[in-house]
């Protein structure tokens, strides 16, 4: 349940800068134990999970809003548009603008 709660926390706070310290504290674990337990239960590291969640949220924003790619990058705390674009492309195989073209809801 602690790891599930951490996943829910990540989802609810995806627009914020998430740190291992805060997540471990939320779960009531040390950072080391939380990191190990998370990977064991989820099959991927905390940072990989957060990245996947951010890309999942970005997909929703790209297909369902008129927000610019720059705004989405800022909204999800990517730091820069180029970092957002390269991360998005690595995760999905397409650029954010290509994804938007293919998935835009009319």
Low-confidence stretches: none
Mean pLDDT: 93
What order do the helices and strands follow?
A: HHHHHHH
Radius of gyration: 15 Å
| Category from helices, strands and their pairing | mainly alpha
In whole angstroms, the N-to-C terminal distance is 39 Å
What is the beta-strand fraction? under 5%
Oligomer: single chain
Largest sheet properties: none
> Helicity, in percent?
over 70%
The dominant shape is: elongated
Number of helices: 7
Query: What's the β-strand tally?
Result: 0
Task: Tell me about this structure.
This protein has 106 residues and is mainly α. Helix content is 73%, strand content 0%. It contains seven helices and no strands. The N and C termini lie far apart (39 Å).
Tell me briefly what this model is:
The radius of gyration is 15 Å and the shape is elongated. The chain is built from seven helices and no strands. The chain is an all-alpha fold and 106 residues long.
List key phrases describing it.
106 residues, single chain, mainly alpha
Topology:
Elements: H1 2-12, H2 20-27, H3 31-42, H4 46-64, H5 69-75, H6 81-92, H7 96-103
Helix pairs in contact: 1-2, 2-3, 4-6, 4-7, 5-6
């Amino acid at each position: 349940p602690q790891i599930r709660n951490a996943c829910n926390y990540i989802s609810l706070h995806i627009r914020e800068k998430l740190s291992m310290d805060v997540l471990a504290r939320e779960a009531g674990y040390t950072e080391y134990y939380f990191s190990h337990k998370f990977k064991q239960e989820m099959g991927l590291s905390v940072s990989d999970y957060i990245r996947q969640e951010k890309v999942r949220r970005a997909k929703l924003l790209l297909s369902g809003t008129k927000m610019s790619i720059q705004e989405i990058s800022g909204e999800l705390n990517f730091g820069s548009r180029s970092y957002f674009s390269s991360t998005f492309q690595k995760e999905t195989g397409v650029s954010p603008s290509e994804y938007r073209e293919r998935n835009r809801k009319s």
